[in-house]
Specification:
The structure is a single chain. By secondary structure, the chain is of the alpha+beta class. It has ten helices and eight strands. Strand 1 and strand 2 form a beta hairpin. It starts with a strand and ends with a helix. About 35% of the residues are buried. The mean pLDDT is about 90.
Length: about 190
């Protein structure tokens, strides 16, 4: 484990390799799981605000799910998450060329909104668990991401480097620079 400020970071983020391969996994991280994408408190409000502009990018079944369930729902653990379509994929998913993508991000890229997508989605495969005094960052290894692991190993991309933009978005540039320094020290540390 590694600590930077109020975050405890699993060494898996430094040691394991990962690089998405959408052409092979087809965005299945938006489909599998037992709940929608975890949302931060401010994101719950943002989804309510941006939904009218995101709606034009969504599939009809996603729109129906959101209009029936709401822009967010509470999961079994009492946390706010994105709603699902018939208990499967996130209601905000779109499908292009057989690949699941984020309709929120599509609206962002079209400059319709300033909210990119839930930070939990952006961070994946990094998961953040908040505790009273700190946040724990862990690498979530999923069988559906085996191609991302292969590609990450082939290209020597550690999880934290793959998630660089998302980690900076969540924790800031200074935090990420400290993580890079710690990673270099640990990698070059003699046994």
């Amino acid at each position: 484990m590694l600590q930077i400020g109020q975050t405890i970071i699993s060494l898996d983020l430094l040691e394991k390799k990962f690089r998405c391969d959408l052409n092979r996994c087809h965005g299945n991280c938006c489909v599998y799981g037992d709940a929608g994408a975890p949302l931060e408190e401010k994101e719950v409000e943002l989804l309510d605000e941006v939904y009218p502009k995101v709606k034009e990018f969504l599939r009809p079944e996603g729109i129906r799910a959101i209009e029936k369930q709401g822009t967010h729902v509470t999961d079994d653990d009492g946390e706010e998450v994105t709603p699902l379509i018939k208990g499967k994929e996130c209601a905000y998913t779109i499908i292009e060329n057989g690949i699941y993508l984020c309709g929120i991000e599509k609206a962002f890229l079209a400059k319709k909104i300033k909210f990119q997508k839930p930070v939990s989605c952006h961070l994946f495969p990094v998961r953040v668990k908040k505790y009273s005094d700190f946040s724990a960052l862990n690498y979530e290894k999923w069988h559906i991401c085996r191609h991302a692991v292969e590609r990450g190993e082939k290209n020597n991309v550690p999880v934290y480097k793959f998630a660089k933009d998302a980690l900076i978005r969540k924790f800031g540039k200074d935090w990420f620079q400290q993580l890079e320094v710690a990673a270099k020290e640990l990698i070059n540390k003699p046994d």
